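Appendix C: a fully annotated inverse folding record. The material below is reproduced so that readers can follow the format used throughout the book. The structure is listed first as tokens, followed by the designed sequence.
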């Protein structure tokens, strides 16, 4: 079973995934890290090929990882910041994949605040501190405002990440334990 962490850049997805994977002894994959291993720097890829081609390639990589994943194991998949906000027409099955992730009981939307303006400000501040990003405040603010509206319309579990990562991880673990226990009860013998 895949545990999906979704949300904007700077929300704490990778930090939380690393700690949770250590705490419960499972693997995690970060889609951005895998993309960079295969294709190189994301910003350069987008400059060369355009954002739509990046989104298509990122979706291909996600599907390849998912295809090779053992469904009997638990693993965390950290999705790219825009993964759930791509244009619907990037692939014939993207809408279905997105809905499947959104409706999965083990999908968690991570955000530093549930207040729109506070979240925008925190994300922009965090993104500007990332030395590998070639960006500016206006670009990041525009991007997060657009994406945050889409993220807030998703129906998956929401996790607030503006507290100590250990507390965040324990909350996620408790929710997972509860959901997995309920799923186990539903499974016929």
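Designed amino acids, in order:
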């Amino acid at each position: 079973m895949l545990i999906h962490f979704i949300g904007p850049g700077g929300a704490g997805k990778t930090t939380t995934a690393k700690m949770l994977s250590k705490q419960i002894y499972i693997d995690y994959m970060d889609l951005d890290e895998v993309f960079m291993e295969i294709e190189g720097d994301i910003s350069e890829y987008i400059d060369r090929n355009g954002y739509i081609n990046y989104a298509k390639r990122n979706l291909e990589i996600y599907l390849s990882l998912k295809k090779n994943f053992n469904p009997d194991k638990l693993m965390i998949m950290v999705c790219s910041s825009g993964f759930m906000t791509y244009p619907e027409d990037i692939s014939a099955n993207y809408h279905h994949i997105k809905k499947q992730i959104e409706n999965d009981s083990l999908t968690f939307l991570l955000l530093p605040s549930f207040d729109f303006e506070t979240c925008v400000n925190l994300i922009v501040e965090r993104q500007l501190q990332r030395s590998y990003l070639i960006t500016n405040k206006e670009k990041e603010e525009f991007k997060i405002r657009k994406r945050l509206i889409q993220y807030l319309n998703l129906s998956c579990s929401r996790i607030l990440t503006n507290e100590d990562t250990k507390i965040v991880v324990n909350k996620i673990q408790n929710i997972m334990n509860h959901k997995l226990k309920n799923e186990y009860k539903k499974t016929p013998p």
